[in-house]
Write a structure and sequence with these properties.
The protein is of the alpha+beta class. The chain contains 15 helices and nine strands.
Length: about 350
């Protein structure tokens, strides 16, 4: 155990009790609220996630209400948060808890970590906050604080790094108040020991922080290089009929945006012009099926939408059709469908103009 483990825990908790933010799920040991907040805040900053948490609690005040909702309604409410598998897992797990667990969340880490969409971090957070179980949380904020204060250079996204940081976090844990301590550690990383330009000169640990003493704050935590970002080229065909109808299709299969809706999509290997678009067999089939009379490019400059491992270069093509669009929907209802934020931005601009 690090020599100043008790000092670290006491000082951190004291800082937290004075400086913690007043967040709606804090002070509660209701596992539904804690679970919901943790799922929303995965890969999402509090400022962005808080409005979504409030919307979800208002729409689905209990796990039963969430389970009884349709997946489409859940995805629509989630729209804009990204990583939509989190929303699908949220809905799946709510159904599991209601229908298999009689509406009762598992009451320890081992049970919680078996839930779909719940990993080590989320299970540790719920177990410690709701059930006072002494299990340490490790997330991006925790990696950053521990790597800097204790001078750990093991890459955080390596197998060895994950084991090492989990072990260190567990050693430092204040077992008398694990929930408060875990929240303190996450809060300190999110608000003080930030990724860029932290105020180290005013830090409560600056007399003991290894990174500060060795001028290595900017180099920690260490992370192995990510794989190369893949470029993809999307061509959305926005079909408009004479009777104000259009066409949306639900994305099925695995991959990005599963369960969300989109306009007919033709993917190319590079950016293409109108002639190249019309040469595509898939476009010719689409044009014949829906009797497209003309097609025009809406945006000359592709919209670049960046995901974690891929960048989408997107163009929207507007197609005019007769009234016979198969499985069409009214244009005035387009905004009711759950779509990726990329399409939501287009819909807001195009159909409001």
């Amino acid at each position: 155990m690090p020599k100043f483990a008790p000092f670290f825990a006491n000082k951190l908790t004291s800082w937290y009790l004075i400086h913690k933010r007043d967040l709606p799920w804090r002070g509660s040991d209701n596992p539904y609220y804690i679970w919901l907040s943790e799922i929303i805040l995965q890969q999402t900053r509090v400022a962005q996630g808080l409005p979504y948490y409030l919307k979800f609690v208002e729409a689905f005040p209990t796990v039963e209400a969430l389970a009884n909702a349709s997946e489409t309604d859940v995805l629509k409410l989630w729209q804009g948060l990204g990583y939509y598998s989190r929303a699908r897992n949220l809905h799946f797990t709510a159904n599991y808890i209601v229908n298999t667990c009689n509406g009762v969340f598992p009451k320890d880490y081992q049970g919680l970590v078996t839930l779909k969409g719940v990993g080590d971090y989320t299970a540790s957070a719920i177990a410690s906050i709701c059930y006072n179980e002494p299990t340490a949380v490790v997330d991006g904020n925790v990696y950053r604080v521990l790597s800097r204060v204790f001078g750990v250079h093991t890459p955080i996204n390596s197998t060895q790094g994950k084991k090492e940081f989990k072990s260190l976090a567990q050693q430092l844990l204040d077992e008398s108040q694990p929930g408060t301590y875990n929240q303190a550690l996450m809060e300190f990383g999110a608000r003080y020991c930030v990724p860029q330009n932290p105020e180290c000169s005013n830090c409560i640990f600056n007399d003991r922080c290894e990174a500060y003493k060795t001028n290595a704050v900017g180099q920690l935590p260490v992370k192995l290089k990510k794989r190369n970002v893949k470029k993809r080229y999307f061509n959305y065909i926005v079909i408009l009929s004479e009777n104000d109808k259009t066409l949306l299709q639900k994305r099925t299969g695995k991959g990005i945006w599963q369960g969300l809706y989109e306009f007919p999509l033709l993917e190319s290997t590079s950016e293409i012009n109108e002639f190249q678009l019309k040469e595509m067999n898939a476009f010719q089939e689409l044009a014949k099926k829906h009797q497209l009379s003309e097609i025009t490019l809406y945006n000359e400059t592709s919209v670049i939408h960046k995901l974690s491992h891929q960048h989408l270069y997107t163009r929207f093509w507007i197609g005019s059709a007769s009234e016979k669009i198969t499985n069409s929907i009214s244009i005035k209802n387009v905004k009711e469908y759950a779509v990726p934020v990329l399409l939501q931005n287009f819909i807001t601009e195009f159909f409001s103009s």
